[in-house]
Structures are given as C-alpha cells and as structure tokens.
Specification:
With 115 residues, the protein is α+β, with helices and mostly antiparallel strands. 25% of the residues lie in helices and 38% in strands. It has a four-stranded antiparallel beta sheet. Strands 3-4 form a two-stranded antiparallel ribbon.
Amino acid sequence: MKHYMFLIAYQPGDLSAASEEARAAFFEQHGAFSAFVAEHGKELASAALDDVETATTVRHVNGEIVVSDGPFAQTSEIIGGYYQVELPDLDTAIAAVRLLPPSYSLEIRPISTIT
C-alpha cells in the first residue's frame, strides 16, 4: 500500500448559498469517496482548511525570513482541504478522486518514505 496526499483546489464560493440539492450532492460525493477509500485502503487524515484570508506565508528573502499575511500565490483557485489516504496504487487513487465534486481540481501526491 502507498500513502497519498490529495490536495483539493477550487474556486472560492459560499456553499451555504448553494441550493439544497447542490449541497446534498456535494456531501454525497464526499461520502462516496470515503466509502471507496475504506473499501480499497484507508483514510489516514482529512480536513477542510480555513479561509485563504487566514493564511500566513513565510519566505526566505536575501538571507532573512519574511512573514506576510495571505497565501503563497495569488490564483483564482485556492487549496481548501486535503485527504491523506493509503491505497494500493495510483490507478486506485485516481478512481477515488473521480468520486469527489467535479468543481474540484485535485492534485495527487505520493508521500515520500525516506528511510
């Protein structure tokens, strides 16, 4: 089994402003994802991240540490959450993320096992 991190990026919006049907579909898709992962491996961790306005970025600039409010990059999509899972292979990981809401862009990253 391999460990993967799924980074969830999406266009910011207000889920509470969505229709009841859209909210139900959103939660059903996350439920289907979790069921698939449980059947093929296991979910190790997951969380939604707080709003991008709460981000703090730390950079090394000319030998000094610069701390600034806000995200590292200014993009139209934000990283809004993650799943850390254990699954057999990349094909299974891809099958799992296909179950999440189609409004997401998902980055699948194997977790390095440096020994």
